[in-house]
Structures are given as structure tokens and as C-alpha cells.
Amino acid sequence: MELALGGLLPPASQLPQRLHEAMRYAVLGGGKRVRPLLVFAAGELVNAPVERLQHAGSAVEMIHAYSLVHDDMPCMDDDVLRRGKPTVHVEFDDATALLAGDALQTAAFEALTMQALADEPADQLRMVKLLANASGAAGMAGGQAIDLASVGQPLSLPELEHMHILKTGALIRASVLLGSYCGEPLASAQRDKLDRFAKLMGLAFQVVDDILDVEADTATLGKTAGKDAAHDKPTYVSLLGLKEAKLRAAELEAEALACLDEFGTRAARLRELAHFIVHRAF
Amino acid sequence: MELALGGLLPPASQLPQRLHEAMRYAVLGGGKRVRPLLVFAAGELVNAPVERLQHAGSAVEMIHAYSLVHDDMPCMDDDVLRRGKPTVHVEFDDATALLAGDALQTAAFEALTMQALADEPADQLRMVKLLANASGAAGMAGGQAIDLASVGQPLSLPELEHMHILKTGALIRASVLLGSYCGEPLASAQRDKLDRFAKLMGLAFQVVDDILDVEADTATLGKTAGKDAAHDKPTYVSLLGLKEAKLRAAELEAEALACLDEFGTRAARLRELAHFIVHRAF
Questions:
Q1: How distant, in Å, are the alpha carbons of A123, B264, B267, B269, B274 from that of B41?
Q2: Cβ neighbours of B136 in A, within 8 Å
Q3: Domain extents for chain A?
Q4: Distance, in angstroms, between B269 CA and closest chain A CA?
Q5: Residue A73 touches chain B, beta carbons under 8 Å
Q6: pLDDT tens digits, residue range A232-246?
Q7: B73 and chain A: CB distance < 8 Å anywhere?
Q8: Which CATH number applies to A2-279: 2.20.25.10, 1.10.600.10, 1.10.287.180, 1.10.540.10?
Q9: Cis? peptide before B16, omega within 30° of 0
Q10: Which tens digits make up the pLDDT trace of B7-47?
Q11: How much is the ipTM here?
């Protein structure tokens, strides 16, 4: 994935250099790569060729990276630390961060069109649609807008869940589905099970993020810890308490694993990832 | 086009409302719609169905609108007036402008995948690739980065031209080509002629923009006039002088029109648009 991302991003030696450097800085050399890992793990279910998964994985990771760059900007979360390094607008400047985020989003869609990623072009178009839907106003960007509007506001658990389903869940889900498009077709019932798994993983990811924001320190996280409480943001921990939030994460993991039962050993990587997402320390 | 754009944008009544309102504010109720007009005019060459052209035209206009929203932000041009109204970050706030621009870019790619836009899905994938290439680091965003780096810097005419080919030209060119994909296939020689026309129009558009920035007033333009000189930006006028710049625009128009000769009456709208682009007053 690191090689694939490096190859798909414009070279830092080429004009406009500062933009390209900022794009590479935002994407390379850091990050858990959870979304590309999900693409690859779902690809294993359908015997997908590695090269297709590299492109699909790069696309979701670029969308994720662009959202972090913009989210960290002074007019949003105004954060200075990401993946253990200065954020893009700190290392470069605000204008370059804005443009680099913009160009990373475009590069994500470009990555889905550079070579055949599914057996049928119509399926590849569905992949583009899926990524767009997961990233835009009905997905990630919409979730960020709700998040922005909810600072200092009391949210109910369903409202919080809805926000996270959009903000984080949609792209996690898209990662799994994108991987599954890259190989042999799944039966419709299997696709539904996988989709359910993907949705549960999206929620589990966010519950654990909220727990880590309270329990982990900044050095381990590579980003500023305790940020949610400092910004008076509603989280699973603030709504449920730490103990209940951990219970919720465990429940989500169990339910997600059950969705994989019928896939047998081909789902081994997806099971490992479910375990990692729930039990990670950063 | 206004109806098509209104229908493709998320409704202002739906959550997150502020994001949706900002997206609609940025796109609806203003703008010359030059890019969608080029999509439609090129569509006439190939008997393209109107509904396809509406989606393709909406996609380019959303990319254009997102770039204006971000370009006007305080960390970029810091402008308060656009299309005769307060800019998005002034009417809403910086964070909403950032997210609205982001979500508009996504909506553009989504608009290219919502229904069949070409006879072959593989051609529709080429449309997505074309728009991505024209919008990203190798196109519009790259041009903006060069523009940013060139404030107060002496640029040669070839350097200025290169910047504009990316910043404005790429999306103008994409508009024409997207329209031409929506109908009957063009012969390869015809496609080349049309592509040449599109490239020349992209340059002509920018030369005239530079002339208008000097000659027109803010009320006529609907955006702040005299901005280039105030920001010490190199322009065709600052490099060539006003008289030479006008001559250059006329030459580009003549050369562009010559590319359309073989298309006969089917190119009537493209000819009208070429005339409008060069002789417009705003």
C-alpha cells in the first residue's frame, strides 16, 4: 500500500512542487491504514487481484487523508499534531493545506479510473458512485457538518450514532464494499452480510476512537488526546460512560464477527481486522 | 441547467441543513454557466440526450463552484463578493465554506455516476477520469497552486500560459469533451479538432478574464474588479499590455472557430459560445 500510494501521488520533484509535497506529506509515512486493510481483507473474500485492491485502497486512504488535512485546519479543529507530526497547514501553510486536501480528493476519484478495477466497467462505475456517496454530504462531509453543529450541544445516543455513521462509518463501510467489487461476484445474501459487517465495524471504530481519546496519551495516539472533552464534543464515553462504551465495542465486535461465519477461512483477515479495530491501542 | 443543478444538490430542508444551504448558495442563482453551456453545445455535435448533458454539465459546474468557494476563503484570495453576493464564508462561516466546497467536489463525481451518461459504461468511466484529471493536481488545483506561488513573482508568457492552461483551461476543455462523450461517437480526427477548439477556448476565456479585471467595474463583474493588480498577480494584460491582450483574444477566437469548420451547422452553438466567451462584458 505504501508503494502503491507513493506511485499514485504526483512526484514531489514535479511542478507545482509545494502542492505535491504537501499531498505526499499528508498521505505517506504514517497512519494505521485501516481502510486499505479493509479493502484488501474484503478482496480476499473474492480472490481479487492485488493491483486492483491497491488502487481501491489508495482511493479510500486519499479520501481519509484529505478529510484529516481539512479537519485539522484553523477554521475547523485547529489541530497541530497528526500521526505524530505537525499537521499540513502547520508544516506548510493554510492555503497549501486547503489545495492539497482538494487535490487529494480528486486524486482518490482518479485512482478509481486509471485501470480496470472490476470485471465489468459498470461495476467499476458503481465503485465510483459508492465512494462519492460515502464521502460527500450524505456521508463523511455531512457527518463532519453535524459534528461541527453539535459542539456544546446535547446529543441523544441515536443522534450521536447517526453522526458517526456518516462521519466515519460510511467510509469504513465503503472500504469493505470496494474491496468486494474487485473480484468474483458475491451472492446477494453474502453481499448483505458483508455490508452488515462493514456497518458494524464503522460504529465499533468510532466507539473505540472515543475511548482512546480519553484513555490514551498524545504520544501513543500520534494526535492530540483529550480533544473531544476539551471541545465539549459529545462522544460515546460522555454519553454512556467508559465502562458501557467498552461493553458496546465488544458487542459490536461479536455481532460483526457473526456476519462473517458463512465465509469460512476466506474471512480470516477480516476477522483479524475486526479484532484489531476493537482492541487497538492507538 | 438551473433545474438540474437544483435537483442534484441536497435539499436545504434536509439535515445537515447549514451544509446543504451553503452548497446550494454556492451553486444556484448566479454564474454565467459557461462550462455547462459548453457541455450542451458539444452535446449538440453528437445528438446527445438532454438528461445526460444535464448531469455532465452539473458535474463541471459543481467543480467550478467548489473551486470558487475555496478560492475566496481568507487563507486564499480572501474575497467578499462573488456573483454579486457575499462569498460563502462571509454569508455562512469559514468551516461551512470549507465543507461545502469539499462536498460540492464529491457531488460532482457523484453526478457522473447516477445514471448512464454514455452508451458504453467504459466511456462513462473515461468521463470520470477526464473530470478528475482536469480538476486535480495536474489541472485546476495544480494551476491554483502555481498561481499562489507566483504572486509578486515575474512570470514569462509561457509560464503564465501554463498556469492558466491548468487553472482554467483544463476544466473548460473537459466541459467540451464531456459533452461529446454523451452521444454518438466522434471519429478520432474530429475528436482531435474538438479538443483543439476546447483548449483554445480555455486560453481565450482567461485572456478575456484578465482584460475584464482591468476594464470592467465590480458591479458589472459581480466580483471584485482590479483584484489581479491589487494582488500583484501576473496577467495577460500586465505582460502584454491591454491592446496586445485584446489582439491575442481575437486570434484565439479565429483559430478556435477554424477548428469547427468541418462540423457544419451542428457546431452553431459552439460558435456562438466562442463569440460570447471572447466578447462578453462580465
A1: 30, 13, 7, 5, 10
A2: 103, 106-107, 110
A3: 2-279
A4: 30
A5: yes
A6: 778 899 889 999 999
A7: yes
A8: 1.10.600.10
A9: yes
A10: 999 999 999 999 999 999 999 978 899 999 999 999 999 99
A11: 0.95
